[in-house]
Amino acid sequence: MRQTTLFETDKIDMLAFERKAMLDGYFAIAGVDEAGRGPLAGPVVAAAVILPPGVSIDGVNDSKKLSPGRREHLYEIIIEKSLSVGIGETSHETIDRVNILEATKLAMLAAVDRLSPTPDCILIDGITRIDHTARQKTIKKGDSLSLSIAAASIIAKVTRDRIMTAFDAIYPGYGFAIHKGYPSPSHIESVRKLGPSAIHRLSFRGVREHVRCHSF
Questions:
Q1: Residue 47: inside a domain, yes or no?
Q2: Which member of 50, 71, 76, 156 has the greatest number of CB atoms within 10 A?
Q3: Which of 128, 156, 193 minimizes the C-alpha distance to 64?
Q4: Which domain, by its residues, includes 18?
Q5: Within a domain: residue 113?
Q6: CA pair distance 146, 43, nearest whole angstrom
Q7: How many C-beta atoms lie closer than 10 Å to residue 113's C-beta?
Q8: Within a domain: residue 190?
């Protein structure tokens, strides 16, 4: 007989963290996640989502587990059903200046600051808090455990993918529409041949080795 695992979606109460926060007296509960920490190019994008109490959205899960088409479909449903959605973006220049962790925190804070109402409780994927006065709970693998965080994961991923697809037309030859800036073999090879584009993260390995070899 096959054994089930803790992280099977149908065995997880995806609203457990939200309900616990409500029982603790919080009402505007935002899930927060990011997309784009690992790529060699483009911004890091974060999203914050406040869902109505007890809402159910079938299929919402960690965006990395969903197909692009499924993410796009769920993106529209999340936008429609959410009480509020905020999106924050930190550029490749800022990533190079302050490092990717600090840039991610800035994007998350910007996303939360764009919510209305202002959240009194924030559920964050991962282990890093942001500079906000609301009560915060960080959750490892939160995008697989909290519906609000999973929704934010989808919003962030779809938003960033759209940004990188648009960049593909501006900076042809790098394949941004295909790999979205992640360090695929084809992307690394294109940087080696063409040099970094204007949106590459010059501090990242795979890019910085080629900064002095090409003008851009």
A1: yes
A2: 156
A3: 156
A4: 9-168
A5: yes
A6: 25
A7: 14
A8: no
Is 69 among the domain residues?
A: yes
- Cα separation of the two ends of the chain: 59
Radius of gyration over alpha carbons of the chain, in Å?
A: 18
- Summarize pLDDT for 35-46 with one digit per residue, the tens: 999 999 999 999
- pLDDT tens digits along 121-133: 999 999 999 999 9
Q: pTM of whole model > 0.85?
A: yes
Closest CA to 149 of 15, 5, 19, 7: 15
Domains: count for the chain: 1
Q: Which residue has the tokens 């992280």?
A: 7
In whole angstroms, give the CA distance from residue 206 to residue 58.
39
The C-alpha atoms of residue 121 and residue 178 are separated, in whole angstroms, by: 36
Q: Which pLDDT tens digit goes with each residue over 65-104? A: 899 999 999 999 999 999 999 999 999 999 999 999 999 9
Distance separating alpha carbons of residues 22 and 53, to the nearest angstrom: 9
Q: How does 170-198 read in b/e, with b if 16+ C-beta sit within 10 Å?
A: ebeebbbeebbbebeeebbebbeeebbbe
10, with CB counted inside 10 A (0-12, 13-18, 19+), is: exposed
Q: Alpha-carbon torsion 152, 80, 181, 110, what sign?
A: negative
What's the one-letter identity of residue 80?
Answer: E
Neighbours of 69 (CB within 10 A): 8
